[in-house]
Amino acid sequence: MNETVEFTNLCMVRDGDRVLVIDRKKEDWPGITFPGGHVEVGESFTEAVIREVKEETGLRIASPQICGMKD
Question: How many CA atoms lie less than 13 Å away from 69 in the CB half-sphere?
Answer without folding.
Answer: 5
